[in-house]
User: Which sequence fits this backbone?
């Protein structure tokens, strides 16, 4: 575990497109799977560097983290009993500089800039408190974010010192440990595995497998209902360092401050902290992913089955309806054993796939239902060759909500310089297209751009009762400062093949 100056050999998935390394199989099938593992060939570089670059989590990796990763690979079933010594003053310094300087302060009111005054002395004191056990977690500051359905999402803003220590723990310990444990169909809160990777995996899985039924599932208030005791037990499956487990327990029990009052429900972890996403993935890995991978898919499913999980949202595809209904019952019972439940309104079983249109037509029913995942509505479509395909378009409610927010912003900017507003709107549109400009969404991209032009024109014409700003002038500004509404992402099968073919 502590051997220095050793590098990992290249890891290449078995087979041409879909086979994977032993013990971490992807979705069923002999062809390209929905979630092939991330293959990595050996890196050609000069030896002797202290850090290993371009790893799975896309950043320089300290020697300690690299040694942990090598130990996990050599002895995949052994616990790691000595970990906290990897949290050095230098690790805390890297964590501090890795934080967002403009982030909101926690309950202690300390900002990133203020903590940087006398940074060396502060980090040395923090290091000594962490190593001796004198470190105390500060309650998170509760912030309620409005949700589209009218409710609120409680977020916990951690104190700066908590953020520093948590980031050091995540980067140097938890990430190298659990990136070797997590399965290929797990996305979200994992470096190098973003939303578009999950969307590509889901699309390819449905199109290439015998999938006729989709189970769209969502865990109810997952972060608020995590059983802390069970979470620490699951962490103990891999982590044997009691000092590290006690440190994580301090953050879980720190509670929240809201309007000057401290409270703690005794369960859950504050959503929004640095360490919460990793803890959530660990929980769902043992509760859901490993159960599906080791028991349900190889032993219980009678036909093809796929799964793609992004944080606490996951979509499963089944060949047979009986498998889907049985899985839903058993998954509900399994989640209940860990104090969790599926959202009754956001969890649906629908007929969806290459035969859905014909089967529903025979029964005198309408077009197949659609489902939403990661901001996109997925629907059944036919390609130009008459073959089955998955169509994706921005969720209408989200698009309307974005336009409504831009309308309010334009009202505040009504009397600003027109060119400056045109440039700002171009940046907003560019960011929106970076996410939503996927194949099959082209008409919806043009529609969004057109509606944005109309909102801007209406705002300009209301600067005074006599203002009649010409459409031609606005179109000229749009063409000059706005990006074109065109597809930016490749087809899912193309991108998946490029990333996982080696």
Assistant:
């Amino acid at each position: 575990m502590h051997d220095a100056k050793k590098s990992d050999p290249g890891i290449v998935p078995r087979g041409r497109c879909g086979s994977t390394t032993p013990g971490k199989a992807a979705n069923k099938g002999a062809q390209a799977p929905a979630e092939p593992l991330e293959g990595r060939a050996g890196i050609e570089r000069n030896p002797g560097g202290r850090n290993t670059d371009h790893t799975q989590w896309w950043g320089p990796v300290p020697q300690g983290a690299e040694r942990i990763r090598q130990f996990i690979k050599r002895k995949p079933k052994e616990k790691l009993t000595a970990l906290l010594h990897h949290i050095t003053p230098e690790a805390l310094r890297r964590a501090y500089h890795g934080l967002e300087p403009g982030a909101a302060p926690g309950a202690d009111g300390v900002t990133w800039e203020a903590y940087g005054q006398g940074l060396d002395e502060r980090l040395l004191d923090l290091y000594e408190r962490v190593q001796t056990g004198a470190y105390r977690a500060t309650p998170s500051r509760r912030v309620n974010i409005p949700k589209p359905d009218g409710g609120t999402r409680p977020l916990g803003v951690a104190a700066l010192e908590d953020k520093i220590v948590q980031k050091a723990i995540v980067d140097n310990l938890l990430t190298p440990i659990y990136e070797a444990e997590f399965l290929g169909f797990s996305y979200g809160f994992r470096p190098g595995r973003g939303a578009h990777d999950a969307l590509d995996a889901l699309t390819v899985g449905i199109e290439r497998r015998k999938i006729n039924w989709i189970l769209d599932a969502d865990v109810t208030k997952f972060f608020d209902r995590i059983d802390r005791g069970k979470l620490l037990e699951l962490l103990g499956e891999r982590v044997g360092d009691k000092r590290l487990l006690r440190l994580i327990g301090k953050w879980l029990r720190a509670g929240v401050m809201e309007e000057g009052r401290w409270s703690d429900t005794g369960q859950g972890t504050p959503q929004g902290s640095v360490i919460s996403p990793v803890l959530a993935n660990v929980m769902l890995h043992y509760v859901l992913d490993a159960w599906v991978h080791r028991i349900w898919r190889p032993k219980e499913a009678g036909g093809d089955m796929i799964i793609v999980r992004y944080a606490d949202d996951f979509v499963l595809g089944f060949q047979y309806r009986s498998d889907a209904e049985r899985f839903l019952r058993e998954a509900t019972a399994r989640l209940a054993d860990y104090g969790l439940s599926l959202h009754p309104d956001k969890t649906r079983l629908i007929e969806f796939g290459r035969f859905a249109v014909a089967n529903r037509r025979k029964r005198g029913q309408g077009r197949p239902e659609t489902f939403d995942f990661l901001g996109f509505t997925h629907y059944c479509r036919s390609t130009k060759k008459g073959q089955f395909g998955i169509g994706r378009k921005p969720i209408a409610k989200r698009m309307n909500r974005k336009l409504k927010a831009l309308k309010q912003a334009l009202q505040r900017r009504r009397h600003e310089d027109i060119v400056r507003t045109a440039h700002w709107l171009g940046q907003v549109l560019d960011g929106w297209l970076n996410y939503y400009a996927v194949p099959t969404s082209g008409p919806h991209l043009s529609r969004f751009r057109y509606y944005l032009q109309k909102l801007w024109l209406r705002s300009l014409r209301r600067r005074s009762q006599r203002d009649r700003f010409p459409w031609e002038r606005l179109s000229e500004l749009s063409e000059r400062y706005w990006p074109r509404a065109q597809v930016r992402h490749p087809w899912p099968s193309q991108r998946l093949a490029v990333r996982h073919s080696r």
